[in-house]
Every structure is written in C-alpha cells, then in structure tokens.
Amino acid sequence: MRFLKLLFKYLIVFNSFSCSIEEKKNMKYPKTNKENIIDIYHNKKINDPYRWLENDYSEETQSWVKEQNKFTDAYLSQIPFKNKIKKKLMSIWNYPIESMPIIKNEVQFYYHNNGLQNQSILYKKNKNKKIDSVVIDPNKLSKDGSKALGGIYFSNDTKYLGYSLNISGSDWQELNIIKLEDGSIISDDLKWVKFSGMEWFKEGFFYKKYPEKTEENILKGINRNSKIYYHKLKTPQKEDLEVETLFDSEYISPWVSVSEDEELMFLYGSKGTYGNSLYFNKTSLNNTEWFPLVKDFKSEISLVRKIKNNLFLLSDRNNSYNQLIKVSIDKYEESNWEIIVDGSSDEVLKEIQITGNKIFAHFYKDVYSLWKVFNLDGKFLYNIDSPGLGIINGFNGDFSAKKTYYTFNSLINPSTIYEYDIVANTSKIYKESKSAFNSEKYVMKQEFYKSKDGTLIPMFICHKKGLQMDGKRPTLLYGYGGFNISIEPYFNKSNSILYDNDGVYVIANIRGGGEYGEKWHKSGMLENKQNVFDDFIYAAKYLIKKNITSPNFLGIQGQSNGGLLIGAVINQNPDLFRVAFPEVGVMDMLRYEKFTIGYAWNVEYGSIEDENSFKNIIKYSPLHNVDTNVTYPSMLIYTADHDDRVVPAHSFKYAATIQNLKTNKNPSLIRIGINNGHGFGKPTKTIINEHAEKWAYFFYEMGLKY
Questions:
Q1: What is the pTM of this model?
Q2: What is the pLDDT of the chain when averaged over all its residues?
Q3: Which of 50, 506, 558, 622 is 20 to 30 Å apart from 569, CA to CA?
Q4: Strand partners, 169
Q5: Handedness of CA 390, 394, 400, 402 (dihedral sign)
Q6: What residues form DSSP beta bridges with 416?
Q7: Does 463 qualify as catalytic in the annotation?
Q8: How many helices (H) and strands (E) does the chain have?
Q9: What letter does residue 217 receive in the DSSP assignment?
Q10: Which of 196, 435, 560, 634 is catalytic?
Q11: Given 521, 642, 678, 691, the catalytic residue
Q12: Contact in structure between 659 and 32 (CB atoms under 8 Å)
C-alpha cells in the first residue's frame, strides 16, 4: 500500500512537470489592451501602446494586476518543490538576530528579531534587570506587518526619541515622538514627509515636508517643492515654522542638520542623486544669511562632526577617492581647508566615524573593508585587526566614548558583533550569530576579469568547497552598476538554497558603482552607461569561459537601477542567460522623469529634454529595445503596488511588451507585490514567500530539481 502511495505521488509530480513544459510553448497571458499613442522626441516618433497602465488607480489597471498575479500563481503552483523551498527558508530564517548596540548618554538601545517576526523591535537595555524594555514594537501597529520602523532620532539630551514609520513600503513617512522616561507617545501627527530625518534643536526638530497630494497622485505624482520646517513638540503641524533657504528652484531638495552641541546648523541642497551644496550658520529659527562652504552641485560633501571650532567634512571635491577635511568656522573658505585623511586608487575612503577622540576611517581595498585609526590631526595610528576578508561596519558613538562596536560579515560569514576598546585597541566578540550556516563548508573568492574595453572588473564567487565545475552549475549573477552605490559581499541567508543545491552565487562589481571612487561611478553613467552593460555581459562570458556554468544554467538578477541593467543586457544578449529577474526596474527610460523623484536621476542618466541624452538613452532603454524576433530567457519580473521610488508602471509596460511577443517561447511572468514598495520595510513573511518563488522558478526553468 505504501508503495502504491509513493508511486501515485511520483506520477503526480511527473505529470505536473510534463504538463508545464508543454504549457510553456502555449503561454496564454492575460490580455493587455493597446492604445494608439505616439510621442515625438527630437523629431523621432515613439509608440507607447500601454500608456494606460501608468494609471495605477484605474479599475482597468487594478484588474490587470489581479489577473497577472493570478496567472503567475497558477504557473508557479505547478512547481513541485516550491513549498519545500519555502519550508527550508523558514527554517533558515528562524534564529534570533540582534543589532549593534546604540549608545546614547550611556543608555543602550538595540533592535531584536526572533527570526520570523515581520518587523524588528527596538529595545532599551535595563541595568540590573533581567528583562529589557520594549521602546517600539512595529508588529503591534499592523496585523500584516506593513508598518515598518524607519529612522530613529534621539534628542541631544536623550529625553525624547523621534521615529519615522513607513506604510506598505512607500517612501512617505509619518513622524512620531516618544518620551523615553515613561514611553508615552506625543501624538503630533506629522505627515506629507519624505526622504527626511529629524534634527533636534531645543524642544523640537527640523524636518522636510512636501505639498499635500490627491489620492490618485500620492504614489506617482512628482515630488517637488519640498521645504524645511521646524516643529515644536506638542503643537499642531499647521503651526510649524518654515525655514528660510537659498534655493529658488522647485527641483532643488533642501536639508538641514544640526551639530550635537546645537550651536551650528547646516543647509544642504541637491539637484539630483549626485552633488550638493553646503552652507552653515548659528542655529536659529529665522536665519536669512548662510555662510557658503560649497555653492555648486559638482561634488559630494557632508559634515562628519563638529569639534569645538572645527568642522570635519567628508568630500570627493578635490579627490575622486574622497578625503576628510578640517575647516575652521572662522576661516571657512576653500583655500583654507586642511586635508586630514586622503583616499587613493588603492584604498578608497568610504566613511568616517569620529568617536573616542579618534578618527576611524573606513577604506575599500578591492571592495573589502579596511579600517584605519588616526588622531584628530590626521596622524596614522594603527589598523583595526579584521576578523577576515569581508565587510566591517560600525565604530560610531559619543565623542568621549571609551568603547564602541562593529560588525563583520561576508558572503559566507553571518554577521558577528564585536565590542572594541578604543583605548587599548582590542576587540572581543559581543554577539555571535545564531545562524545554523556552517561557514567552513563554503568558499568565497574574488577574481578579476576583463570587460569589453579591457578594464579589469572584480567579482565575488561563492559556492560549496570542492564543488566540481562542469559548466552545468546553476549560477546566479547579481549586479547593479549605478548611483555611486557599492555592492558589497554581505551575507545573504537566502543564498543557502543555491549553495546547497550545488549552485554558485556571483556578484559583479561593475562600473557605475562606488567601489573605486567617483571615477568608477562616472565611467558608468550618462554617455558611459553602455560600459555597465558590457561589464555585466563580460562577467557572464567569464563564468562560461571558466566552465563554471553555461547559458542553460545561468540566471541574472538586479533591482531598481539593477532592474534596468537586467532589461538592457537581455535585449543585447538574450541567448546568454536562462533565467532573468528584473526587479523594481527603471524600464521606460523615456518617461522616468515624469514620476515621483525620477527627475533627480537625470544627473545619472541624462534628461530626455536634451537631444544628446535622448540619443544615448534610446539605445538601451529596456522597454524600447525589445526584439520581436528573438526568444528571451525565462523571466520573473517583480514590482510592487506601493513602489513610489520606481513606479510599477515601468514593469507593467515592460511585462506587457514581452508577453506580446509571438516568438518568445519562454514564460515571462510578473509578480506585483501587494502593500509592498521598493524594498524597504517588507515583512519577513513576504520576504520568505518571494524568495521561495524566485528559487523555485530559477531551478524549474533550468530543468533542475530541488
């Protein structure tokens, strides 16, 4: 009898697999209507038949979303091992995680998650008590975990804690305040806030607010005309005082920060995602004059710390690899700036922390972390001993601190927290990871390959030790390549699914990122954007040449600007990949400036209004370069209904275009996350479900079993 049951189960699995292969040849996608809409860009006509999908509030679009999700559900439900992967992921996730301690006036705070909680909880450590007290538990704010705790902002006297809440993954924030002494909430109800912190001054704080929007435009309307306000505690938001700034353009985004001693305030202005101006003055609610440190928008510059009469600033203004600068507030002109710590092509300066009367400088050395310690005059003291090759973050705290904390992790090392004695220059383990991941079983290596133009590009390769490379290893190649963002070899729990199925995970540190400073960034932006795609394509070719994988076993993944990357490379080399995951991608490059904060990206991509930029962009825009005569890789496109960073219309229109191809025999599915956004604040339950779907699809489309 048991034999018959097993045989019956086998036949069900076999039949479902066989049927799905047949169905791949006859994919009947939900119908997507076309419109006859033609735009003219610099005398060139461009058809936009799915423009109606930009109206995310319409009944037609919402119906389309439901039908697409239903279709994706039906296809993925055929995969016999999807639930097995989900169960394994839940097991992988199910261990407690704790953050580095946050020390404020000798009081310790930290985040904790039991592993499967949707959101992490903020705790305060109580001396001489067995149980620490909960400060904020976001899990109690919504049943589905859709309310996430964003930034936290302590008043300088640690009397109050301000915090932001993000709902359903949207960038819109609600600001709230807690009185730490008794945990009581001050319900001042601050809304229409986005991309903002809370800078405390006396009994209130500065924050950034946008004009109110209609319901239809909340998630897609252009975000401009932001202003800085000062909010006094226990007063209504309508009484907040607008802060006078120097900027007269509705597209210049202002920000104000305040020094810890509250003596000086700093006015930042930015036109886009790179470059800012910086001014300062004595902290006041009615400043009309600002003293300029940098007036233009041609470099990045930010305050690290004010110490007595000196400002310590991190900037790439005169060094592509960044430098720490000391500026006297009495002689603030650029000609009087003093260089304290310099980055170089070999060691790119990424971050500065000033604590314990010392400068802690975080360098990248071929993307690995290297921390050096200097005195306040810039004299090198010593290196911080690293637990291994990987990423180290931390070393923050009060200026007078005697100890601080840092974390170490890598692709094969779950995060461990260390306590560091600043005076003795010694470290000890504070919290070890509770993960069951056995680092000894795996190998992480870095290799360099030549791109199309001969530039050497680094990549990280990770897999089981002793794995035989026969050209058939299921491999996932990840890339981003933009906005000066570095892709670091962080530990990713989900990758255990790939490793334990004899697969290989690869990160390509392609141009456009910040791995080698601003020059590396500029070599992959604007007219140099094709370098990014070439770097990624040649990463794939390198893996094939090394006999690690082959086009039948190679998957690729990228998110946001990385989603654009995936869309571009499969247009240019569709036969090179078997599976593709373009996620929350910028797919319609001709209309990206028309939504939310998209206009801020034209410093990275170029504006369609400029003819030369248009001619460059139209060459690679994923939506506009779909080839009607080729077979594309199996695709699982991802977007979310509350993504107001890269609006879902990008992915909607792209999916509709790919699904309409008569020559494409591979499935092109789209998953639209409900009550989710660009990625931040996603509930653990949703994260696990999405990873289970992706891994199941990845193996299934390669003809492999898990």
A1: 0.95
A2: 94
A3: 50
A4: none
A5: negative
A6: 408
A7: no
A8: 11, 39
A9: G
A10: 560
A11: 678
A12: yes
